[in-house]
Amino acid sequence: xxxxxxxxxxxxxxxxxxxxxxxxxxxxxxxxxxxxxxxxxxxxxxxxxxxxxxxxxxxxxxxxxxxxxxxxxxxxxxxxxxxxxxxxxxxxxxxxxxxxxxxxxxxxxxxxxxxxxxxxxxxxxxxxxxxxxxxxxxxxxxxxxxxxxxxxxxxxxxxxxxxxxxxxxxxxxxxxxxxxxxxxxxxxxxxxxxxxxxxxxxxxxxxxxxxxxxxxxxxxxxxxxxxxxxxxxxxxxxxxxxxxxxxxxxxxxxxxxxxxxxxxxxxxxxxxxxxxxxxxxxxxxxxxxxxxxxxxxxxxxxxxxxxxxxxxxxxxxxxxxxxxxxxxxxxxxxxxxxxxxxxxxxxxxxxxxxx
Length: 355
Hints:
Elements (H helix, E strand, L loop, with lengths): L1 E2 L16 E2 L10 H11 L4 H18 L28 H15 L2 H21 L25 H8 L5 H13 L3 H5 L6 E2 L4 E5 L5 E5 L2 H11 L9 E5 L15 E3 L2 H11 L1 H4 L17 H13 L4 H8 L15 H10 L2 H6 L1
Antiparallel strand pairs: 1-2, 3-4, 4-5, 6-7
Helix pairs in contact: 1-2, 2-4, 6-8, 6-11, 11-12
C-alpha cells in the first residue's frame, strides 16, 4: 500500500489527510471469470462450499455486467458475459445493480437472495484486498427479511428414504448415529473407538464447554458399529479413506490403519451431495449439480422434533438435546409435517364415516 503526498488544502484551509491507495498484490486477472476462479482457489474457500460460491458468483456476474441473470431452463448452458473485473468500479454500476438485484429478489426466495449477496460481498472484499478494484457497488443493496423455516425437521418418509440410499458403511453408521442419538455432528466425529460402550448402546463425548457427557443410540447404529470398527481397539471412530498426511496430530490418526479422523467439512459435503435429489424430489437427476442437499444439523433437529411429537417429556428432551434452557426446546416443539397430516386425517369426517 502506498501513500499519496498531500497536494491541496481541504475546506477551511485544513490540510487534507493522505489517502491510502492499494497496490495490487498480484497481476490483476484478465476477466471477471478469472477473478472468480482466483478467489475460489486463493481465499481459503472450503471445498464443500466451492460449488455454491461459483453458482452465486456466476449469477452476480450477469448483474455486474448490467444484465438480468438467466433463470429456470435458460440458466443451464448460459454463457457468462466476458468483462474485466475493473467494471465493478464503474460509478454508474451501483444504480443499475440495485435495480437488477431488486428485480431478481422479487422472483427468488429470501434465503437464496441473501446467500448470494453475502457471497458476492465476500468476493468483492477479497478482490479489494488484492488491489484489483476499489469500490463495492453492492453497498446500497439490503438483505431481504427471511421468514422462519418451518421445514427443518425431515418428514418420516424422508428419513426412510435416507436409510435406503446406497452409500458406504461409514456414512450409514454415521447418519444413523446422528439421528438416533440426536447428537451434534462435531461431537460424534470426535468419538474414538475406546469411547464406545456397545453393550450399553452409548458413547462418551466431549460436549460444548468441555463437559464429558453420554450419547445414546438405538439398534440401527448398534448393528452397524461392529462392521465399521472391525478389529480396531482404539483411535478415531470415523476415518478418511486415505492415510493421514504428514503433520496430522497424533490424536487424529488411527494407530492401527494410519488413516486420519474424518473432518466435519468432508462429512457435511458427503451428506449434502447424497441428499440433493431427496431434498428436491421433483428435480431431474440431470440438474443435480445445481441443487442443494440437506445439512447434517437436520438429523439432530429431526430426531428431537420427532421425540417432541411422540410426547417425550420436557426433562427427557433436555437430557437428549443437552440444552441448558427449556426455552431452547421451543424450536423442536413445533409439530412437523407428518404430525400435522395425522392430526388432519384423524379429524377427516369422511374417514370417520368409513370407520
